[in-house]
């Protein structure tokens, strides 16, 4: 199969022919990747900055956000079947440590991130354990399904507290910030205020439901927020 590989320490990725993962454990699933998306983490790895140098052990396939179709399942897989459209959590839990065994797999102390600690999804096929897979409605376009992981971040972050009737301030209209703006509106926020300096991202924030977008390089953010909130300030940051 073709894959985008961090071949050796240094800047860049290489397009390579590599073997399709062929050894499936009993709970492993082989997924044919339909779409993958590029996260800021992948840019760090491309650039080979200090963060990457401390974590990445080349050669390794990059990428962690994707959607695809199940093509092979391990002997004991029960939660997905061949042909299912799936998306995946990007952190693979060990399922053995204290955190995993007490219902906190998201903070597994041995977590392995796809494309960071093990081969990732910038490839035609990827092998993942069934525990991280979620079936996704195949009517959702794959380019949208591919960003379920950052979208999940936005949903989780926005719903940590009750937003009904609250004034919410989101600092930065990156992908997760703009998705959080939409979630906050749906969750009943009174006003969603976004601070952002780039024109392109300001427009995105407005399209996604921000009531007010403030550029902190042009206006004083705290006083503008107070002006929009009857001098009360934001309830949720
Ligand atoms: Zn990411
Ligand atoms: Zn664990």
User: What is Rg?
Assistant: 20 Å
Helix content: 25-40%
Q: What's the CATH first level of the largest domain?
A: Alpha Beta
Q: Describe the main β-sheet briefly.
A: 5 strands, antiparallel
Quaternary structure state of the chains depicted: single chain
Overall CATH architecture of the largest domain = Alpha-Beta Complex
Under CATH, the homologous superfamily of the largest domain reads Medium-chain alcohol dehydrogenases, catalytic domain
Characterize the overall form: globular
Q: Which class of secondary structure composition applies to the elements?
A: alpha+beta
* Topology pattern, helix = H, strand = E: EEEHHEEEEHEEEHHEHEHEH
Enumerate the strands of the largest sheet in spatial order, edge to edge or round the barrel: 9-3-5-6-10
Mean pLDDT: 97
Number of helices: 8
Q: Remind me, CATH topology of the largest domain?
A: Quinone Oxidoreductase, Chain A, domain 1
Beta-strand percentage range? 15-25%
Distance between the termini: 45 Å
Bound molecules: zinc ion
- The tally of beta strands, per DSSP, is 13
Count of individual domains: 2
Ranges with pLDDT <50 over ≥5 residues? none
In short:
The chain is an alpha+beta fold and 237 residues long.
Molecular structure report:
- The longest helix is centred in the last third of the chain and has 12 residues, at 175-186.
- Helix 7 links the parallel strand 12 and strand 13 (212-214).
- The chain has eight helices and 13 strands.
- The N and C termini lie far apart (45 Å).
- The chain folds into two domains: 2-146, Alpha-Beta Complex (Quinone Oxidoreductase, Chain A, domain 1); 158-228, NAD(P)-binding Rossmann-like Domain (Rossmann fold, 3-Layer(aba) Sandwich), CATH 3.40.50.
- The protein has helices at 40-47, 50-55, 98-101, 142-145, 148-158, 175-186, 199-207, 221-228; strands spanning 2-6, 14-17, 28-37, 60-61, 65-73, 85-88, 91-92, 112-113, 125-129, 133-135, 167-171, 191-195, 212-214.
- Helix content is 26%, strand content 25%.
- Bound molecules: zinc ion (2 copies).
- One zinc ion binds at residues 93-94, 96-97, 99-100, 108-110.
